Give the backbone structure.
Amino acid sequence: MFGPGIWPVTLESGDVGLRPIRQSDRAEWMDLRYRNAEWLAPWEASNPQPGGGLPTFRQMVRSLNQQAREGSALPFVITQAHPQKGRPPIVGQLTVSSITWGSALMATLGYWVDHEHAGRGIAPTAVALATDHCFFALGLHRMEINIRPENSASLRVVEKLGFRYEGLRPRYLHIAGAWADHESFALTAEEVPEGLMKPWLASRA
């Protein structure tokens, strides 16, 4: 399971980075979410309990950090370095969740990216970074991504990286106020012995 040097961890490729989400990110994260409210609304997780709401930023980070300490999640923000901005600004979020050890060695990955940075290869780079880390540093065997059939931008990410389509999951998650179907994609470590980053960068060269 997790040990020294495994978490917290920062991953980078070119100007794209993944680093642990922090309570001090609140103002920047909230501003980014506000500017992307309409962009993210159709894919936003919701609470199926009557009158239930989503956690506050503080509650979310506290819960994610607890899961990270327990070895069941990797809660990252996605950053993109800018030569004139010093500290790389946050441009999205990526969370590896439901990490299962023992005989399963698998996890689920979810992500979102600022609409002004969409289509620039940031999401595929971040997903490749996280998946390679899980396969090679953590020793996981399987990574799964579940996407709404209508979310064409996210579907392009898994297509670019070669995730294998596994089928439709009816009413899989509560999204934007209703139970929503998702299409499931996955990869096992044996399918990508060189990882995802190397072929992804080669495809962009």
Summary: The domain at 11-204 is CATH 3.40.630.30 (Aminopeptidase).
